[in-house]
Amino acid sequence: MKRMKWILVMAAVGALLLLFKPDGRGGRASADVAKIEAVDPFLNPGQPIADYLVFRALSAGEARMAVTGSSVTRGTGATAQAKTWRGLTEQKLRLAYPALKHLKIENFGHSGYTSVRLLEDEVTEPILASKPDVLLIETSVINNHNKNVPLEDTYDSLLRLHELYTGALPETRIVFLSPNPCTDNKFGPPVNKLGLRFTDYVYGTASFIHEQGWEYVNVHDEMLAGLDSRHIALPDTLKDGIHPNDLGYAVWADILWPHLTTR
Fold first, then answer.
1. Which residue intervals define the domain SGNH hydrolase-type esterase in the entry (predicted)?
2. Residue 97, in any domain of the structure
3. Contact (Cβ atoms closer than 8 angstroms) between residue 98 and residue 39
4. Which of 250, 251, 148 shows the shortest CA–CA distance to 201?
5. Judging by beta carbons within 10 Å of its beta carbon (0-12, 13-18, 19+), is residue 163 exposed, middle or buried?
6. d(Cα 6, Cα 249) in Å, to the nearest integer?
7. Which long-range contacts (CB under 8 A, 24 or more apart) does 194-197 make?
8. Which of 89, 170, 101 is nearest to 136 (CA)?
9. 9 lies in a domain?
10. CATH of the domain at 242
11. DSSP assignment of 84-97, as one string?
């Protein structure tokens, strides 16, 4: 009888150890199997990005998220990083999902970089090293327009970015974003040396990304629609014609939120 009790006790301990088995990140998996199954991507195809982050937090001990792009991803124009679209999104996810209360969205935005320059090692290597579960890539086409990058080179760079990150990080959810809408500004003429407007880059890359079947958020058009519905003038959301101010970044974060949390 004593031997049988000992066997039962050891079996129970073994089961608990399996539930709380350490993961490769130094965390521990959640014992709430039902909750994990509710956000398991294999059981819930097409799940929202936030659910995938919750799954990673419960199953791996933490969730990791990163953003890359140009200065409007870096946060130029905001009074503080907490006021950028990245910072506001981080706060919203932490508050809305208990499993993400310690989530940090790492910022790999680079001011002045085109989509071509986002392929440089100084940009890609830190992202690959951080191994994010979700990576948001802002297309940087404000700079592509101002620096006269041909559309063909723009499309090629996006293709190479997608190939790089999906190849090296096969479990990472990748989402492309357009930048915000702009007005006339000192950074470049309305029509560049190639005869192209900023919107030619926005709509060209939107079509290209949709053709590839990648996840995409047209921040540009959704912000314009959101501002119109709120009776807010676009210049009131920009610091210098390009970079959003705190209001502009808040609108951006509001636009992005449903894309992260609903199917």
1. 69-251
2. yes
3. no
4. 148
5. exposed
6. 60
7. 194/148, 194/150, 196/145, 196/151, 197/145
8. 89
9. no
10. 3.40.50.1110
11. SHHHHHHHHHHHH-
Which residues, including other chains, have CB under 8 Å from residue 62's CB and lie 6 or more apart? 25, 27, 56, 102
Distance CA 243, CA 129 (A): 29
Pairing of strands 173-177, 215-217: parallel
As for how many domains the chain has, the answer is 1
90-131 residue pLDDT tens:
999 999 999 999 999 999 999 999 999 999 999 999 999 999
For residues 236-255, give the mean pLDDT.
98
d(CA 244, CA 246) in angstroms, rounded, equals 7
Q: Which two tokens stand for residue 169?
A: 């990080």
Distance CA 130, CA 132 (A): 6
Name the β-bridge partners of 65.
Answer: 105, 134
Output the six-digit token pair for 129.
């090293």
Q: 52 in a domain, yes or no?
A: yes
Q: Express each pLDDT in 47-92 by its tens digit.
A: 999 999 999 999 999 999 999 999 999 999 999 999 999 999 999 9
Handedness of CA 109, 114, 116, 117 (dihedral sign): negative
- Residue whose C-alpha is closest to residue 236's, from 225, 254, 218, 249: 249
CA distance 15 to 32: 13
- The answer to whether residue 7 is domain-embedded is no
What distance in Å separates the CA atoms of residue 172 and residue 132, rounded to the nearest whole number?
6
What's the pTM value of the predicted model, to 2 decimals? Answer: 0.86
* Distance, CA of 252 to CA of 208 (rounded, Å): 22
